[in-house]
Task: structure prediction
Amino acid sequence: MSLSILMAALSIQATPAPARSGLDVEIPAVQGVVVDPTCGGRPAMTTLATCFATTQAGVAALADTWNAAFAQQGWIAADGDDNRVVYVRRRPEGGCDGFQLVAFDDGRQVAAPAAPAYIALATIPGDVCAAQPAAPTPPATPTTPQ
Result:
């Protein structure tokens, strides 16, 4: 994918996040949300995702706000679970691009409204609409004549 992350200024204190494998998504500014270059202290995640910090009280509203903004940009929430949403958008030349939003907390702190919470945005490489290879079928068992 040769797309670029377009980061809105998330707050006066926010610093721009580096692009991670290029994602063409406008991220709306939300008060109290800042770019977190440490991804909540998860070094491995910093190489895969762009992370944002908020509070546990605000993370659900942030995800809802961004979900609405992504939908206006043509992204479809195609899959997910409690803390993850997978977004897909068709390419004009065929195939699809995809990215995922993952919400998480520190895990070492007690859950509390003012405790930190994080959202990571990461591209899904390749064509997410490409047909998956069919599962191999087991070979037929020869029957013995009776």
Observations:
- The chain has a mean pLDDT of 81.
- The helical segments are 43-46, 59-72.
- Strands lie at 6-7, 26-27, 34-35, 50-55, 76-81, 84-90, 96-105, 116-124.
